[in-house]
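#dry-run=false #mode=assembly
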Amino acid sequence: MSFPVILGVLVLLTILGFFVGRSRAMGVVGGQANQLHSRPHYYGHFIGAWCAIPGVLLFLAWVALETSVIESMVIASLPPNLANLPQAEMNLLINDIVNLSRGDVTSRAVVETDVRAAADFYAQLKSSSKTLLLAITVVLALAGMLFARARIAPDLRARNRVERVVMIIMIICSTIAVLTTIGIVLSLVFESLRFFQKVAPTDFIFGLEWSPQTALRADQVGATGLFGAIPLLAGTMLISFIAMCVAAPVGLMAAIYMSEYAPAKVRGAVKPALEVLAGIPTVVYGFFAALTVAPFFRDTGIELGLVISSESALAAGMVMGIMIIPFVSSLSDDVISAVPQSLREGAYGLGATKSETIKQVILPAALPGIVGSLLLAVSRAIGETMIVVMAAGLAANLTANPFEAVTTVTVQIVTLLVGDQEFDSAKTLAAFALGLILFCVTLVLNIIALSIVNKYREQYD
Amino acid sequence: MNDSATNETQAGTDAAGDEKVKLLSRGVKVFYGDKQALFDVDLDINENEVTALIGPSGCGKSTYLRSLNRMNDTIDICRVEGDIILDGDNIYDKAVDVVHLRARVGMVFQKPNPFPKSIYDNVAYGPRIHGIATGKEELDGIVQTALEKAGLWTEVKDRLDAPGTGLSGGQQQRLCIARAVAVSPEVILMDEPCSALDPIATAKIEELIDELRENFTIVIVTHSMQQAARVSQKTAFFHLGYLVEVDETEKMFTNPSDERTQGYITGRFG
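#status=ok
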């Protein structure tokens, strides 16, 4: 008897409840559906809800509590010499019991009879717990069905009740997204606080050196453990700036061409083709940048007498710019197309040329959306990881020179967390602090974008 | 009502002696793709007169209006044949620049469509792109004159920096008229300019049209026969893409020569 079976039974009972409710409602009024307050199927949903909701709630509570309840029962059943173990050994013992009950290997060389008995007890509890859950679920659902069936009367406001239930479900769904965000932020904040206990916040935020190798031994050389985030932020800004220098003009021009100049056929072909760019995995962009673009820039640099390192901010930024072109072009195209035709005709009617109309009437009208799309692209650029990991390098240079290798916040988070790490060293915790900074920057950008959009929004009806 | 009716009659007879044809159409056909929307329209539009185009929905009156300043060019599948002569020049001639044409033949649309700019910038837009004003003061003057002509000056003179989209529907439409007037066109085309407005705003615009007639030639499409009777000197009746009848407004509404005109005006169809 497994959880899916129990859920299946619940679903079947709910469906049964639906039909019971509908036919009961029709029976109450002798087939005269117009004498009911609500349409007959609402009475079906009403009983269905009474069947399903208590069962689902019980099921969720059961799943959440089952393990700890069974474990405490197993511990209570242990003989005194095992029951009074210290916490760490007790955890190990419980683990062994669970593994043993599943027939897996254990950490014990010899399995004592007491432990064997506990494992059997555990397995027995597990299976009887499932049976018990099934029984209680069925009883609850049937009780709900009978209770609700007894309440069905022509003036029962079934529709309003069902709609309220649906609304509550929708509220729960919408809170899940919000709660997840809050959870992520809280975990970032708490881990960052642990980091700031080891490294002063001012050293982190204003420090100009990034060298996160902490010394394992006191006499170790070359492991200073400097956590200044400025070089990383500067690298992120530099690469995002280069990316926007590519994406903003190209994307905007493409959007204007597609929405204002292109014949419908061309637009129908070009727009999806541009959006394909957004579907290319960033890893692919990454090795395109690292294996094609960066060497090309380096070789061109040699020709021109410039020193361009083989992992340069320029290469990473250019490729990232190409990656975010579709974000700019597609969204801007949508907002430009959404500017009402009447505004275009108004300008043409005054003798404005096409380019005057676009520059002076359409773009101002579409500005909020365009700004929104640009800021979305910036957020995307700041958070982008794979391209910079592959093409921008790891050296935390504090430079504005696009020909040098730089590193970004995201790259450092990756390198800090890749491989075997102890999760309480400053080095690892720094990743959370960097994540927090990244989150704050994108949050501020989004707030700015929203306020711009709201300030300049024009209502067309 | 009676006064203005008499005035119009007098104006009509006064003008009868020295009428000058401003816009001349000969054999105008308009096609949307394969579908023909307008068949061989011959129509003379006199200078400093209001010509009303009436007819049931889909009769081609708006299509004809939009062909007078080549606004139909903005529709890809639309094709115009025939001659439309403005002051002796065929506006569909290859040598004619459509931008220049539209500066001479302005347009006011069915729905008020102010730009998302301030009231001042809305009116100043046309003069600016055509370089009509040489300085800030001259531009101020043009804006004020245009707003005065549109009867909007007293209402907005203290808030010229406010967005044009914040005005009421009637004010927005008068702003659009001011915007059209500011370019000093010779002809103003109006495509049902009052259909989105309440009766009071409509009355104001009708009054305005009568005043604008002094300086401009006006062609107006309207669904309201009362409006056509009130504001126009000449009325053209369109039906199923044909120009059925065109005559002095007075005569059209009292003694039309075509049966279909009679039927439409008396409300038997349309």
